[in-house]
Amino acid sequence: MKLTEIDFLVVGAAKSATTWLRHQLQADPQIYMPDPESHYFSREYHRGTGWYLSQFAPHAGATLIGEKSNSYMDTPVAAPRMHDALPHVRLIAILRDPVERAYSDYCMFYRRGAVSADIEAYLDPRRAAGDRFLQISRYDLHLARLLDHFPADALHVARYEDVEHDPGRVLNEVRAHLGLAPAPLAPTAERRINDSGSRLLPLGVRRALAPLKPIAAPLRGTRSFETVRGLMAKEVAYPILTAELRTRMEEYFQPMEKNIDELAPGIIRSRFSPPPKDMATGEG
């Protein structure tokens, strides 16, 4: 396996249906993508090229090889590293409404017990403009960095909202970017992957049981395990994104659309701007 064999990277954004896209692409035997996100060019660069290439298992029959690591888009050092190692690579990004993306990201961390219920500490631009949740949604900064190192025709930008109402079109636009013919949606991956509504064990119980994970792993999926888990699991009550906080976030992100339009007029903005209000929406 050589670096020159890697054809494309799905670079983000987090909480924007990139896992759905990976599943759709993996359903095509022409394409090979490893399951785990390596985060090589962002967080694991110190491990070296050999380690990175070892993340790609044997892939007989595949004519296109790629990987997905959402941190590549918002980590400043990733773009120059990607270009140094893979100047030929094609990039794919999915953008989501920046407020919705930030809130969804916050909810994921809240679900894990990594952030508190003080939602404004993480999402209010007056307090958290430089923090993870708002910063990842600053697509103008991230796209500008990518376009500083790669030509515009190497970057394909899709919209999360289009995944919801027309996933087949999104998939086939990505496939066209990769030089592939159109294909139907994979039956096992048609719906957008989202576990935010599933039930969880209370956080205190999860922490207490954490040391037992290796022992419990073989039991996962068995009827007895799922029965016990179902008796203890509860729906997660997420902190509410109030109208006032949403307005402050929208005002913070408002200049971003103009910035994006100036980066690549028509190419990126047409995918970032919201769809017409009369357009039917639904889960993809």
Describe the 3D structure:
InterPro entries: NST/OST, P-loop_NTPase. This is Sulfotransferase domain protein. GO terms for molecular function: sulfotransferase activity. The chain is 45% helix and 8% strand. The chain has 284 residues and is an alpha/beta fold. It folds into two domains: 3-96 and 136-197 and 256-272, Rossmann fold, CATH 3.40.50.300; 198-235, no CATH class. The chain has a five-stranded parallel sheet, with helices on both faces. Strand 2, helix 2 and strand 3 (64-68) form a beta-alpha-beta unit. Helix 9 (139-149) packs parallel to helix 16 (256-263). Residues 198-203 and 276-284 have low confidence and may be disordered.
What is the domain total for the residues?
2
Q: What is the residue-averaged pLDDT?
A: 85
Strand proportion:
5-15%
Sheet having the most strands: 5 strands, parallel
Q: So what's the overall shape? A: globular
CATH topology of the largest domain: Rossmann fold
Give the strand order, joined by hyphens, for the main sheet. Answer: 2-3-1-4-5
What is the count of DSSP helices, taking H or I runs of 4+ residues? Answer: 17
CATH class of the largest domain: Alpha Beta
Separation, N- and C-terminal Cα atoms: 35 Å
- List the secondary-structure elements in sequence, H or E: EHEHEHHEHHHHHEHHHHHHHH
Low-pLDDT runs: 198-203, 276-284
Number of strands: 5
The CATH homologous superfamily name of the largest domain equals P-loop containing nucleotide triphosphate hydrolases
Structural category is alpha/beta
CATH architecture of the largest domain: 3-Layer(aba) Sandwich
Radius of gyration: 20 Å
Amount of helix: 40-55%
